Structure formats: structure tokens, C-alpha cells
């Protein structure tokens, strides 16, 4: 068993790691802060206000229904981005 691990250890060392590269701490921290801000409480409140305003404008006839649907669809895509990317990555890694 030890002989096999010595013979085939080069394949294990050649695998890439998906960890953050050395020295990228500030960049990763800034991106995580940005993600938290864009998907956190501030974004949720802004999306609720936007959907309410767009819905009111659509009901009073001041906005095209198609444009209002695009705004609401954009909110779904914004808040579902992590799930969408996760689904794409899992499909790509499965080899379909």
C-alpha cells in the first residue's frame, strides 16, 4: 500500500486547489463585503421599495407592464444569483 502511494503521489500533487491564492486576503474580503451589501438587508429593502413603486406605477397606468415585469425579474435574478451559479457549476462538473 505504501508503494502505491509513493508511485502515484505525483497525481495527487498536481491537482489544483480551489483555495484563495496567497496574498488575496484584502481582495477576497472586499468582494465578500460587496456581496454581503448587495444581497443583505440594504438590498432587500431597496428591492421591496422598487417592486412596490413599480407595482403602483403599473396599476395606475404610468408604466408599461413589460418594463415592470423586467424590474421584478431582475430582482429575482439578483437575489437568486448564488443558486443559479451553483446549479450551473454542478451541471458543468457533472459533465452534461
Query: Quick one: overall form?
Result: flat
Strands, count? 0
Query: What is the element string, with H for helices and E for strands?
Result: HHHHHH
Which structural class should the secondary elements be placed in? Answer: mainly alpha
Report how far apart the termini are. 35 Å
Low-pLDDT segments, ≥5 res: none
Strand content: under 5%
Keywords: Membrane, Transmembrane, Transmembrane helix
Pfam family, one: TrbC
Protein name: Conjugal transfer protein TrbC
Transmembrane segments: 38-60, 67-88
Task: Write a brief structural summary.
The protein is mainly α.
Q: How would you describe this protein?
A:
The chain is built from six helices and no strands. The chain has 96 residues and is mainly alpha-helical. The protein has a domain at 37-96. Helix 4 packs antiparallel against helix 5 (65-79). The longest helix has 19 residues, at 41-59. The chain starts with a helix and ends with a helix.
Helices and strands in order:
Layout: H1 2-7, H2 9-13, H3 25-39, H4 41-59, H5 65-79, H6 81-94
Keywords: Membrane, Transmembrane, Transmembrane helix
Pfam family, one: TrbC
Organism: Sphingobium yanoikuyae (Sphingomonas yanoikuyae)
Amino acid at each position: 500500500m505504501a508503494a502505491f502511494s509513493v508511485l502515484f503521489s505525483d497525481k495527487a500533487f498536481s491537482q489544483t486547489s480551489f483555495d484563495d491564492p496567497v496574498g488575496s486576503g484584502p481582495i477576497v474580503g472586499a468582494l465578500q463585503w460587496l456581496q454581503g451589501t448587495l444581497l443583505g438587508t440594504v438590498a432587500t429593502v431597496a428591492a421591496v421599495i422598487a417592486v412596490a413603486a413599480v407595482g403602483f406605477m403599473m396599476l395606475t397606468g404610468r408604466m408599461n407592464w413589460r418594463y415592470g415585469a423586467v424590474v421584478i425579474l431582475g430582482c429575482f435574478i439578483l437575489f437568486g444569483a448564488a443558486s443559479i451559479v451553483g446549479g450551473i457549476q454542478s451541471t458543468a462538473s457533472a459533465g452534461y
